[in-house]
Amino acid sequence: MYNGKKILALITARGGSKGIPGKNIKPLAGKPLINWTIESGLKSRYIDRLILSSDSDEIITTAQKAGCETPFKRPVALASDTSSSMDVIIHALNLIEGDYDYLLLLQPTSPFRTNLHIDSIIKKSIDNNSLSSVSVSRVKKHPAFFYSLEDNKLIPLLSKRKQTRRQDMPPVYECNGALYFTCIDFLKKERSFNTGIEEAFIMDPKYSLDLDENLDWKIAESFVEKGIIK
C-alpha cells in the first residue's frame, strides 16, 4: 500500500512461446526467467498482493515455489497467440476478491526491472495523481533515420525529415514492456494502456531488455556474466 492506495500486481505468463520455447521457466543465469520478476515484486515496499495468471501447470508450480500466489488457472481460450492481453488482465481482475485501487502489470520477459523501479513508478504515479503510467527507455536511433521499402527504394518514415546530426536530434522513447501501472477503475473503462494520457516512467536501457527471441536471451546472459546486471 502507498498513500492509502492498495496495489495489486499481476504477472502474466502463458505456456506457449514460439520465439523462445518454454522461456518463462527457462533458466536465466541459474534461475527460471519468471523468478526474476517474482523476486522483484516480492521485494516491493508497496505491492499488497502479487499474483500470477497462467495456463501452464509447470509455470504455476514454478511460481508457487518462488513465493508467488496463483489463485486460478487461466482458461485455454485466453492463452493462444491471438489472445488479447487486456482480456487476460480483465479476466484476472474479475476473479480476484478484495478492493484494489491500482494494478501493476509485470511481464516476465523484462527480467532486469527491479523492486526499485517498481516502487518508483508506484510512488511517482500516485503522488502525481496519474491515472496511468508506462515505463519507457530512450532509443539509440531516431525515427528520422528509419525507412520503409517500396520497389527496393528507401522511403523515409518521417516525410518532413530535417537533415541534422544524430546527436542534435531530440530524444525519442519507446515502451519497454517492463511496467504498466494504472488505476483499476480507469483500466476497466478504457481497456487499454494506450489512451493518450499515459505518463512516462523513464528507465535506463540496460534494465529495459525485453526477451523476445534467442538473440535477446544471449544478450541477457552476457549482461549477467559481465556484471552489467547484478
TrEMBL record:
PANTHER family: HAD SUPERFAMILY MEMBERS CMAS AND KDSC, N-ACYLNEURAMINATE CYTIDYLYLTRANSFERASE-RELATED
Name of the coding gene: neuA
Protein name, per record: Acylneuraminate cytidylyltransferase
MF (Gene Ontology): N-acylneuraminate cytidylyltransferase activity
InterPro entries, per the entry: CMP-NeuNAc_synthase, Cytidylyl_trans, Nucleotide-diphossugar_trans
Stored CDD domains: CMP-NeuAc_Synthase
